[in-house]
Write a structure and sequence with these properties.
- The protein is an all-alpha fold and 663 residues long.
- It is built from 26 helices and 2 strands.
- It has helices at residues 30-41, 44-48, 50-56, 63-88, 92-99, 104-134, 151-170, 186-202, 207-211, 214-233, 238-247, 257-271, 277-282, 291-324, 328-331, 336-348, 354-387, 396-411, 419-448, 452-459, 463-487, 495-516, 522-526, 540-564, 578-606, 614-636, and strands spanning 13-18, 655-660.
- It has a two-stranded antiparallel sheet with strand order 1-2.
- Helix 4 (63-88) runs antiparallel to helix 14 and helix 12 packs across helix 25.
- It is globular, with a radius of gyration of 27 Å.
Amino acid sequence: PQQDLGGGGGAEEENYTYEEDSTRAQWKTRWHFVVGAIGSAVGLGNLWRFPFLVYRYGGGPFLIPYFLALVFVGIPLLILEFALGQSCGGGNVVCWGALHKRLRGLGLAAVYAGFVVVTYYNIIIALSIFYGIFSFSKHLPWVATNPPADPSERAAANVAASDAFFSEKALHLAADPDLPGMIAAGNLIAAVLFTWILVGLIINNGVKSVTNVVFWTVGLPCVTLIVLIISGAALPGSLDGVRGYLGTWDMSKLADASAWSSATSQIFFSIGICFGIMTAYASYNGKRMSAVKDAIIVSSFNSFYSVMAGFAVYAVLGNLALTEGSSVESVMVAGPSLAFKTFPIALAQLPMGAKQFFCILFFGTLFFLGIDSSFSLCEAAATALHDSCALRHLDQRMIATIVSVFGFMCSLLYTADIGYYLLDVVDHYTNNLLVVAIGFLYCISATWLYRLDEVEEKIGPTGKHALGIHNAAWLCAIIVGNVVGFAVDPKFFYVGPILAVVIVLVGTLSAIVVAMKKPSGSKDEERGAARPANPSSATTKERVVLVLLGPAEMLRNDLNRCILALYDANIHPWTIHIAWSIVVKYITPTVLSIVFSSTINDLAREGGYGGYSIGYQLFGAGVVFVGLLLVVIGVAVPDALDVWVDDVRESLFIITRRRTPGR
């Protein structure tokens, strides 16, 4: 069942008893939890970003890096969050505080990142409400009133009308981002207010109220997607669109490093990891649920929905290309431009009655996809607040009100005439820098530092030096590999990885040699010196495993004991496998470091993001800085976050560890 990393028959034995928190709310059933997690994972990016990336990077071949990223980044981190949430019975701050009190800041940084996202995410949901209301109009306002007969002229007129409606009617967008008039869009404010009120009502009683809506908010987008796929398949030109989606196989696109980086980013962001959501949701689970099985189900459904959404999108875009006499490539865009500019034009080409129906259906799908992710992000924040000593006495409705009111006030920033520009910048910096950095630190903290002192003790007197050399070598390899790889000419990018591999091999072998050293005895004893205390009884094989995977295996074994009750030696088919330790310790952080470095390299090469002025760049960087500052405060001044101290929940995985002498 579980490998004993202690080594030797004289090792101490650990017995575990569990203290269930009977006062904490629970999901009605396991499937309520799974469906709720699916709703959080499946969001707007599945519909408007994934299909674009597939088309951009050669069609079908993009699925190769995409599913590799799912296996080596998405599922391992989701298992970690599910297992921690279930084991600790608390939100993200409590979970990471359970690993070490200096990691509370890391847990808080993830919740902060999620709250930053929801403040602008609700703007997109509000836009879907705004567009949905206008979908009832006899004449859809995002297309030309009297379009020319010529297809190319008609296409240009519709694009102009759609741009005008989006920029002027919906957003009151400033023509120049550097010359704002600070005029708020009144209609948008009303829609944002409605969104926040709805989110507040959904989370007003915590997971108990969320349980009542998850099947609706997840089920309806699935039904509407099926309707869009079937209806889109019947449109003229739909086959050309689908052929452009997955029918082409340009394998040369895989030579582009950005294809692999984009695939990893899509998996990382769309699943919703490192926002504190999944730990919060899992904290309301029973202790013995299988985190591995649930993580595979949730992440697989998320990817399945993404692939199927592409068929719906490209069927409609194929029809639009045929109508306008253009190519699918010319009408393909990503992000809000696809949802609120191009796709509405495409739906407006349908016959009278049908176009109104499908516009309502499409914007309804956007709304339900968004609202699920929105209230899950808010629930992560509400759970963190409710877990704190300072606010635990407050009713959950009061905490939901605090989160909603404060969130609405923050969202008002994005309703100004420069709000959409700010949204674009904050979204890029938060998702591509802050959240990726948090994911990297998750891996390092969980698999490099967990119970590190015990691992050192089990290796022996040289354990501290061996682990120090090994960890320093890996960290140095990551830094050198990325710096050199992105600094040299792209043709010689391989130089960075080669240097990294050399550093890792030298460092790892040196660490193993140090771990194998026996404590000096003869000369010291001749001088009357005592032998080192507590010499290790670990075998050579065990010392090697401890150097390579010690903290990661400690964590894996503790999680398995807690969530699967393996302390009674029963074998369960859904245990967290040793492969998880290897992936999360070595592969996942390496991949995330490359994504992070790629973003930094792009920002340096282009002088910032999107051509925005220095003020916008500083605003986005400031959002990242605050999140990383929370991590630093947690490490440097852990007592500053004592408001989240909980002697019950922060005791390791709600377990009492008793050490009894070995026989």
